[in-house]
Design a protein that fits this description.
DNA-binding, alpha/beta, Helix Hairpins, Chitinase A, domain 3, Tscrpt_elong_fac_GreA, Transcription elongation factor GreA, protein biosynthesis, 201 residues, translation elongation factor activity, single chain
Length: 201
C-alpha cells in the first residue's frame, strides 16, 4: 500500500468510523476519547432544508449519477494511473486521487443535504410573510430599482432564474418580512435597505 493510501486510510478510520458507528447504533463501542468528535444530534449533523419535489428529485438524481457513474470512472482512472509506475513521481496518479477526493466531498455534501431535506407543504405556509418558495418583489431605497426573487433552498438556487438561497445575505434579510416592511441586507460596503412591495407564490 502506497504511503499516500496509508495516510488516507488512517484519516478515514479515525475520523469517519466513530460517526458511522453512531449511525449504526454502536455508540458505546466507541472509545471514550473519540466520543467528543461525534455529534449525536441528527438535527445538528444534518441541517434541515425545505425543497420542492422537483428540487429534491434533482438532488437525488445527481447523487445517483455521482455514485453509480462518476465514482466508477474515478476508481478506473486511479487504477490506470497506478499501473504507469512509481507513484512518488506520478502526476497523473496524484491528479486522479485529487479528483476522487473532490468527488467524494461532493457526494458527502449531497448526502448531508438529502438527510436534512424535507418536502415543503405550501398549504401550511403563512402567505403574508416571505418564506421559502415565496416570490418577493423588492425596491432598492437608494436607487429605486425593483427586483423580484424567489426564495429557495441552497440546492435549488439559480440567480439567472431569479432563485436565491434562503441562506444568502439577501435571502436571510427577506425571510419573515411582510409587505410594507423594510429588509436590511448586510453587504461588504455597509447595509442596503429594500422595501417589500409584494409577496406571492
Amino acid at each position: 500500500m502506497a504511503i499516500y493510501d496509508k495516510i488516507q486510510w488512517t484519516f478515514k478510520y479515525f475520523v469517519y468510523l466513530p460517526y458511522y458507528l453512531v449511525k449504526a447504533g454502536f455508540f458505546y463501542f466507541i472509545p471514550v476519547s473519540y466520543r467528543g468528535f461525534v455529534n449525536l444530534n441528527d438535527e445538528v449533523m444534518s441541517k434541515v432544508s425545505y425543497y420542492t419535489p422537483e428540487g429534491l428529485k434533482k438532488l437525488r438524481d445527481e447523487l445517483q449519477q455521482l455514485k453509480d457513474v462518476e465514482r466508477v470512472k474515478a476508481s478506473k482512472a486511479i487504477a490506470e494511473a497506478r499501473d504507469k509506475g512509481d507513484l512518488s513521481e506520478n502526476a497523473e496518479y496524484d491528479a486522479a486521487k485529487e479528483a476522487q477526493g473532490m468527488l467524494e466531498m461532493r457526494i458527502a455534501k449531497l448526502e448531508e443535504a438529502l438527510a436534512g431535506a424535507r418536502i415543503i407543504d405550501e398549504s401550511q405556509l403563512d402567505m403574508s410573510k416571505a418564506l421559502v418558495l415565496s416570490k418577493v418583489k423588492i425596491k432598492n431605497q437608494t436607487n429605486g430599482m425593483e427586483m423580484t426573487y424567489t426564495l429557495v433552498a441552497d440546492g435549488e438556487a439559480d440567480l439567472a432564474s431569479g432563485k436565491i438561497s434562503v441562506n444568502s445575505p439577501i435571502g436571510k434579510g427577506l425571510l419573515g418580512k411582510s409587505v410594507g416592511e423594510v429588509a436590511e441586507i448586510q453587504v461588504p460596503n455597509g447595509v442596503m435597505k429594500f422595501d417589500i412591495i409584494e409577496i406571492s407564490r
